[in-house]
Every structure is written in structure tokens, then in C-alpha cells.
Amino acid sequence: MKLLGKPVWAIPTLMAIVLVLALACSDEPTEVVKTVEVPVEVEKIVEVEKEVEVVKEVMVEVPVEVEKIVEVEKIVEVMKEPEPAPMEMDSGPPIYQMGLFEEPITRNYWNYVGGPGGSVWTGYVIGSNTGALYTYSDQRFDWIPSVAADFPTELAKETVGGDEFWTTEVPMKEGVEWSDGEPVTADDVVFTVNTVLDLQLGSGWASAVDSAFVSHVEALDDYRLKVFFKTTDDEGEPQTPGLSVWQFGLGFMGIMPEHYWSEVVEEAKGAGEIEQQIEALFAHVPDGEPTMGGFTFSKWEPGAFFEKEADPNYSFDGAVITQYENGAISEQNDKLGYTSTFYGEPEGVKTLEYEVGPHIDTALFSIYGNQDAAILALTNGDVDFLFNPLGLEKGFQDRIRSAEDLTIISNTDNGMFYMGFNTRKEPMSHKEFRQAVATLIDKEFVSQTILQDSTIPMYSVVPEGNGFWHNADVPQFGKGLNRTERLAQAVELLKSAGFTFEEEPEMSEDGNFVAKQGKGLKMPDGTEVPTLQLIAPSSGYDPMRATFAIWIERWLNDVGIPARANLVGFNVIVDNLFSDTVQEDLDMWMLGWSLSLFPDYVEAFFNSRHAPENEEGGYNWGGYANPEFDDLSFSLLSETSVESAREKVFKIQQYLAEDLPYVPLFTIPKLDAYRASRIDYPYITVLGGVEGANGMQTIAEIK
């Protein structure tokens, strides 16, 4: 999962600017010539009867004054010299020019996955730095080997040294190398797992290496792994590592290069307590770090650009991927000398075929101050693809469509924009309060009337776009009610929980506005509801969430809940959520998630074991704690079949839609804007769009 700026689970112009600045800063002397009456054309003098001094004219591109006296007695002919033939210009190495409108937070992959650096913007630039044992196939999202050479062995119980484990073995591809030429081996996987467990890393690392299930990993040799899972939980009850723990957890873990990071990790372990050790690891600047994802870091100028160079040593460069209508997938890698096929015989109609690159020399990410500036850069031709996790308002869409060489493609999205509650504090700790807030929020009004259908109202934490896992039959507070009905229902919900009013709110007779706001709202213990702060992204960063926040502030104040929308920068919100004082300082917040296809995030976001006070870097910022839900969500992690996992996910969605630690607000149609005249993708129809595939940096081609 990635934090959207949207927190997961978020250039040529630059070169021109650099060139101009270089010229501007040059120490070369400049010839200054006084000029008078400069004709645009170059003068040619004919039939001169008086001998004159030859004057040399210098062509310049800035206004100058040139004083020239020419004596003639007969004809002065002013002629336009012919235009020079266009020169054959070397187009130079191919550069994939992409745009961002929020600064990445870190270059440290440990921090990106497990710390405050985990924003979607960071993911765009370093999210593909490494590889995993397994991955998803293109478009269809089949579970396939990546660094692994084949599927793992079936889970089997095994007793080792008197302890019982679930075990499985994984073969790894031979010949896969880091960008510095060192081989990727089973030792790298073991090192990564041990680091996560030893330092008790949270967030994405805790989801990938769940210490409640993962005991340890062993290297049987350089290219064979053995994974050991615990057979019982902390209370001695039997458990099985399910899809979330193994196939979509540890199997998807990013592998880190032991030969680079081992000394850094050992030094971090000497930094003091666990919290200080984690901070030391996350603070490391990984200069010279080897990668496995097709690119190596080149340069980062904060506020200007982030640049990566293609890795000539990339092990999957030249591999040919083919998918067939019958479900089969083929990967031919002549560089490593293997051909792999999965899910049937590679025959019949091909639905997709492409060659892995990178087909570019440089991946250049220009960084702009806001969405408006980034879209201007796109329409002006400064970038060819714009990362935009926030959706496009109609005005932005119109600007892009008016540019002849730009294309907008639409896909369903697997993201969620939401409002969260700090359930540790009153009044947010009351379920009825959260339900009253949800009832007051007219998602359809904002989405359809204010934002002109740029957003899609959302009631479950699993988006409609992820159709197999989405439960449409969940409680939908407020849906279909008019303003009078919403206000009345919210008042009744509050009163049912023991809240009282000095004066209840009243609607106008025509039902079009609140004639009298509620006043003197008190909590069940008799204390007044304090002014609550809703932190949300600013309009410069995300006008759609800012719009929702402003309307929510108004609706809460109408009913008598004193609330203030505090619109701030995305990274400011992230800092607040990862603050040591989040438990005391946080009231309500608004953010978004780019979600995983397998929705085990319902456990990672809401199980109390992932609250920051229980897990360093945990994603349950609101501190939601419900023993019944904890048991339900934790049991998902032991589901080993897709069918049983789906039933459990449906139940969890119903539970969350009733208890509302989050109020899901909206999702968006995924609109990717790119310059089709310059860039080509092997496919453009896919859940999450081109952006969801990180801009297809290793497979996009420059025309």
C-alpha cells in the first residue's frame, strides 16, 4: 500500500532550464553594440559609387542598437536572405520525461516501505528499485515467479529441534544480479527477513514479514530458500500461514542487497533502543546503493527533479513476455538463458507480448509546486507523462484534451480517499458520533454537483474497481437522504449515545439551509465537545479533498459539532501521523491510499496490533481497538483459499462500514494523461492505469 498524496500500500523543460542558467551564469564577455533602426532583414548594399568602410554585422537574439552610416547615390536594395536549411539534429539518448507535483520524501527503501517516507510520490521514483520472489502478471494479475525460479513447494508441517513449523521451499533464478554485478542470492532474502524481525520494523515491512507467523528463513544454498512459519499463535492456538502471510506477504517482500546494507544495519543496531535503531536505519542516505529494478540513482535536486539512469546490467533486459488467451504466460530471457511458462501451454491467440527494457537511457521526474503547474508543464510539452494519484477535475481534463498531442485514458482505480478518526479520544471514540458524521457527509452532492462527477462516492473500504473483493452490500449512512433528513438522523444518533444539546439545530421551512445551528453540544459525561481539527490536503495540492474538507466542516458546525478544517501540505499530514504524539494530538484527518489487490490491508489498517503505540510505524493511526474485530481480521491471515478469504473480507467490510474507524469518501476514475506522439506503452487497459504500474518505466518506449 502506498500513501497517496494519495499514504498504500502519491523534465525536458528542466534540461532547457539548466542550459539557460548555464548560459546566464557564463563568465564569457558580452559584446555590446549600440543599435539604431535595426531592420529584421539583413541589408545587402548594391551599386555603391563611393568607397565605404566594410561593416561586419553580428546576428544576435536580443534587442540591440546598431548605428551604421552607408553612403549611396543610386540604389539601395534591401533583400531577405534565404532561410538556412534545417540542420540534422541528434535527438540524443531517449529520456522518459515524467512529472510529479509533490516532493518524494526519501531515497531509503527501508524508510519507504516501513517509515514516514512511504508516500506514493516516493514510490514513483524508488518503488521499483528492487525485486521480490513473486509478483503479479501484467493486466491479469496472476501470481507468478519473479526472482523465484518456480512456485514454492506445498506447505508441510515439520519438527526441527523439538519445535513444529509450517515449511516451504523456494528455488531462485540463477544469474540475477544487482546493478553492481553482485549476484542476488538466498542470503539477500535471509538478510532482509532477519533485519525486519530484529529491528521490529513496522508498516509495510510488518505486513510482508509478519512476526506473528514468520519464524525465520534459511538459505539451503545460494539459490534455494526454506521458509519456517509458526504453527501456533501467542496463546498456543493452532494457525496456518494464509495467502496474506505467504503468497501476498513474504512472497512480495522487497529483497535488499546484503553486501551493501549489512554494515549499515549493524551500525544502526548500536544506536540505542529499538526506536533509535529504526531511526538510524531510516536516516541513512543510500549513496552507491545497488538496485535490481532496471535503474540506478543519478541525481536529486529537491524542488526541481529526480533522475535515474538505466542499468546496463539489468538481468531482465530483453526478456520477452507473452500472455495467451487460454491463460498461459511465457517469459523468455535469453540473457539468463531460460524460458518459463505458467498456467497452461503457451499456444493459441496472444493477448499481450512485449520486450522488457529499459528502452530509455534516463528516467527524469520533474517536480512541480502543485497540480496546476504540473498540468501546465504537460500541456506545454515539458513532460510526456504526469503522475497524478489525485484524479482530475473537469477543468484540468478540458485543458489536457485541448492539447492536440495529449491523450487521456480511463481505467478503474484501486484507491480510496477517506476521513479517519482518532478513536482513542472523545467524542471520536463513540461509534454513534462517527456514524452521525458519516450521515452528515453528502458524498453524492460533492461528487456530482460540486466536483462534476470527477469523483465516485464510496462506502466500503474496498473500491468497486477491485470487483472480486468488493462488497456492495454494506451499511451506507446518509445515502439517499435530503439535508433535513440527514440533520435529523445525525441528531438522533448523537442523542442515542448520551450527547445533549443546549439548542438543537433547525432546518429552514423549505429545507434548503440550516436556519439555526446546533449549540452547546455536550458529551455523555457532560463536558462540552471541544473544537475538533480536521487536517486535510490544501487546495493547491488536492482541490477535491480540500473541497470535501470544507463542506464537512460546514456540515459538522451546522449540527453543533465545533470543527475546523486545517488545509495543509501532504507531507505535513504524514509528519503528523508518524509523530510520537499522534495519540494525543490527532482528532480527524483526510488522506488516501493506493491499495493492494489482495485486500489484507483491512487487517493492517484497523487491527489494534498495528496502532503506533503497539507497533513502531504502524498504520492504525486512529488507534481503533475492537477485540471482536481484531479476532475477525486476524483470522483472515490464516485463510489459504481465495474463496474462504473472500468470505472473510466481505464480513470485514460490513463490520467496518458499521463501526466506521474510517469514513470512505470517494474513489476516482483513473485518468492517465500522456503524449501519445512521443511515448508508447505495451498496454493501457489495466486496473489502476499506467500510473498504477509506476508509469511502466522499464517497458515504455520513446518514439
Number of helices: 19
Largest sheet: 7 strands, mixed
CATH top level of the largest domain is Alpha Beta
CATH topology heading of the largest domain:
Dipeptide-binding Protein, domain 3
Helix content estimate: 25-40%
Mean pLDDT: 88
Distance between the termini: 32 Å
Total domain modules: 4
Number of strands: 28
Which consecutive residue ranges, at least 5 long each, have pLDDT under 50? 5-90
- Overall shape: globular
Strand % is 15-25%
User: If you compute it from the alpha carbons, what radius of gyration comes out, rounded to the nearest whole angstrom?
Assistant: 30 Å
Describe, in plain words, how this protein is organized in 3D.
The protein is an alpha+beta fold. The strands form eight sheets. Strands 1, 18, 19, 22, 23, 24 and 25 form a seven-stranded mixed beta sheet that branches. Helix 6 (258-269) runs antiparallel to helix 7 (274-283). The chain folds into four domains: 1-20 and 94-129 and 293-317 and 356-411 and 673-703, Periplasmic binding protein-like II (D-Maltodextrin-Binding Protein, domain 2); 134-263, Dipeptide-binding Protein, domain 1; 318-354, no CATH class; 419-667, Dipeptide-binding Protein, Domain 3 (Dipeptide-binding Protein, domain 3), CATH 3.10.105. Mean pLDDT is 88; it is low at 5-90. It contains 19 helices and 28 strands.
Summary tags:
about 700 residues, alpha+beta, D-Maltodextrin-Binding Protein, domain 2, Dipeptide-binding Protein, domain 1, 7-stranded mixed beta sheet, 5-stranded mixed beta sheet, 19 helices, about 25% helix, about 20% strand
